[in-house]
Write a structure and sequence with these properties.
CATH class: Alpha Beta
Largest sheet: 7 strands, mixed
Number of strands: 7
CATH superfamily: Gcn5-related N-acetyltransferase (GNAT)
Helix content: 25-40%
Radius of gyration: 15 Å
Order of helices and strands: EHHEEEHEHEE
Shape: globular
CATH architecture: 3-Layer(aba) Sandwich
Distance between the termini: 28 Å
Number of helices: 4
Strand content: 25-35%
CATH topology: Aminopeptidase
Number of domains: 1
Structural class: alpha+beta
Strand order of the largest sheet: 1-2-3-4-5-7-6
Length: about 170
């Protein structure tokens, strides 16, 4: 798997990947599909977008991970978003992306990476825990577009710390 920085030319393919996840539902807080232009604004070159890395496998973009300041996070925090293609499902996309994203957050001088995950997204919660993120807050009963309330779990990764998965046992 090859990891690189996303460019505007990736927006259409990455937007398609994200929109498939949105249409499937159940894992992302995003509920409305984006256009390629909106995708680029949110994740690649918009006002709040700081970095976006893509994972390529056999010339197919199989996932991306972004850092942003969308939503005005607390001082020293940067938000992360991670998405991996559902079809075909390639194992290890998030794990391959995280070292580049982490290095960028450190280079930018942040203290923490924040992940806000739907409480019903068990795979997402497990992924961030595996990467070394720890729970620190919970948003209770955030309504989805259909009115159904779903909690959001807030996890943070302390930069400069030894990753959980690399700690001696």
């Amino acid at each position: 798997m090859h990891i690189r920085t996303a460019v505007i030319a990736d927006a259409e393919e990455l937007c398609s990947l994200l929109n498939e996840i949105i249409r499937t539902g159940g894992t992302t807080a995003l509920e409305t599909p984006l256009s390629a232009t909106e995708f680029a604004e949110w994740f690649i070159d918009g006002e709040f977008a700081l970095a976006c890395h893509v994972a390529e496998h056999d010339r197919l973009l199989v996932g991306f991970q972004s850092l942003s300041l969308y939503g005005d996070p607390p001082k020293g925090f940067v938000d992360i978003a991670t998405f991996a293609r559902a079809n075909p499902n390639i194992s290890g996309v998030g794990s391959a992306l995280f070292p580049a994203t982490r290095a960028t957050a450190e280079e930018l001088g942040f203290e923490f990476i924040n992940a806000t995950i739907r409480a019903d997204n068990l795979r997402g919660l497990a992924y961030y825990t595996k990467m070394g993120f720890e729970d620190y807050d919970r948003l209770i009963k955030v309504p989805l577009l259909d009115g159904r309330p779903v909690d959001r779990v807030k996890k943070r990764f302390k930069l400069g710390a030894v990753p959980h998965m690399l700690r001696p046992t």
